[in-house]
Amino acid sequence: MIKEIVTYPTPPSVQYAIDVRVLDEEIETLLQDLKDTIKANSLEALAAFQIGSYYNIVVIAKEDGEFLELINPRVIGHKGRVTTVEKTAYFPNLSANVTRYETISLVYQDRDLKQRSLKADGAFSILLQRKVDYTFGSTFLNKLNKEERKQFQKKLEFGSDLAISELCPTTFKRDYIIKLINIIMIIMAILLLASLFVDEPLSKEFWHYQSYLALSAFSLNIIYFFYAQYEGKRFTSCTSCQIGNIIGTATISLIKLSVIMIFSYLIM
């Protein structure tokens, strides 16, 4: 029977899975449910936890269409470290960079509860480790380093890997407009100071330059305000904070411009 796969934020049902002691009808049904669910969802593997079971069982889909049944699996050896991008059905549509063992040795029991062992490396090793994690009530979230965990928490908040690409950048193209406005106001401030040391005819000429510069700075502020909103809409995950920043930046710039022009009018 096809079962519903447990997904985030439903917590793991157990801290440690219960080992199978007897292969009875319940376990037979569980093994078949795992296979049916794997087929229905085109998955590589499932741990019993992922369909709400307490038992320590993992089923792997093989390339030939058969299944590898791992009853009471345990990792008993490992070698090397490797970081790969992982996805799991528990976190739909999400991925993370996870560091795991490159090669592992694993013991398990087969359908006859006979002890078996295998060695795995590469993608198969990663898959096995991820599924064995579930038998301890764990997910790859517990394997992430501090920085990767912080990024993954943001992915969880927005429910998509796209959240990372939409995070507010630290710099925008609109910042160049503000830099240009600041340069113009610096020139205006220099003209204002220079007017204190020249005669009246030249001071009036400075006033004309000041007026043109002020008009340019004001126009650039208007351009900044509308362009910044257009640019901000491209980053929907932080639109609200950007609007406040845009209004604040434009307001401060206009206040500075007004102060310079008031002093220029009084002095020039």
What does this entry show, briefly?
The chain is an alpha+beta fold and 268 residues long. It contains 7 helices and 5 strands; from the N terminus they run αβββββαααααα. It has a 5-stranded antiparallel beta sheet.
The total tally of domains equals 2
Q: Roughly what percent helix?
A: 40-55%
Oligomer: single chain
The main sheet comes to:
5 strands, antiparallel
CATH architecture call of the largest domain = Alpha-Beta Complex
CATH superfamily of the largest domain: Peptide deformylase
- Strand content of the residues, in percent? 15-25%
Describe the structure.
It is a single chain. The chain is of the alpha+beta class and 268 residues long. The protein folds into two domains: 25-163, Peptide Deformylase (Alpha-Beta Complex), CATH 3.90.45; 174-267. It has seven helices and five strands. A five-stranded antiparallel sheet has the order 1-2-3-4-5. β2 (57-61) and β3 form a beta hairpin. α5 (174-194) runs antiparallel to α6 and α5 packs parallel to α7 (239-267). The longest helix has 33 residues, at 200-232. The chain starts with 24 loop residues before the first helix and ends with a helix.
Write the layout of secondary structure elements.
Elements: H1 25-41, E1 45-47, E2 57-61, E3 67-87, E4 95-109, E5 115-121, H2 122-134, H3 146-158, H4 162-165, H5 174-194, H6 200-232, H7 239-267
Antiparallel strand pairs: 1-2, 2-3, 3-4, 4-5
Helix pairs in contact: 5-6, 5-7, 6-7
